[in-house]
Amino acid sequence: MSASTSPTTDSSVGSVADNLWLFRGVWRDVITGHSLDGSPLREDPHGGTPGPLPYEQLVYLDFDGEAFVQTNVVSSGRPAQQRTFRGRLVDGVLEFDRLGPDAPKMLGVSGGPGVLVFLPERCDEPPTTRFYDPDYIRHLGGDQRTRTTTLYRDGLLRRVLTVRGTRVSSDPTRRTPDDPRGPTGRVHEGETLTRVYLAADTSIEPRKLQEDR
Q1: How many helices (H) and strands (E) does the chain have?
Q2: Per-residue pLDDT reduced to its tens digit, 142-173
Q3: pLDDT confidence band for 2 (50 / 70 / 90)
Q4: What domains, with CATH codes, occur in the chain?
Q5: Under a CB-based contact definition with an 8 Å cutoff, are residues 192 and 70 in contact?
Q6: For residues 153 and 138, what is the distance between their CA atoms, to the nearest angstrom?
């Protein structure tokens, strides 16, 4: 059985597929922002989704051995909204669906067991000069994880996000009871497109939540 169809294998422990299986589930993330000297930020004006800091979100991450889908649902600290991303495993590497106009090809690669990195395949073209925010995600054991995201705008390092996550469910196909959209209904919606890579910079347009009736 290959790594793409099994949570762990003796031959490829630490592959992208292994790590996606490891992170599968629903996570409650607490997101904080920091200036370059480490001082806490109360606002994130440069991010793809500008807004106040800190805030919390539910992250539904699903993987079936080939297809990947993730939906982030803001639960507190910011107006309720959601964003959905999709991708597929190709030759052992996660390839994201195009994130929006002029967006680069985004990949999910492995840094070894328990480490995923989401970043562009190339960073030498105008869109990634305008906006570049690689994610470094590490599994800490059990139901704990962390993510570090650095943000470059117009080639200049702007801030660092630190995310501390706790897995609250192993089933990403069902909403949690405290989901701000309500406990029933679809977990994932259509992809959320971002315009941050365009020369005329506009930020991501997440879907505003409407509680299911």
Answers
A1: 2, 14
A2: 999 999 999 999 999 999 999 999 999 999 99
A3: very low
A4: 16-177 (2.40.128.20)
A5: no
A6: 24
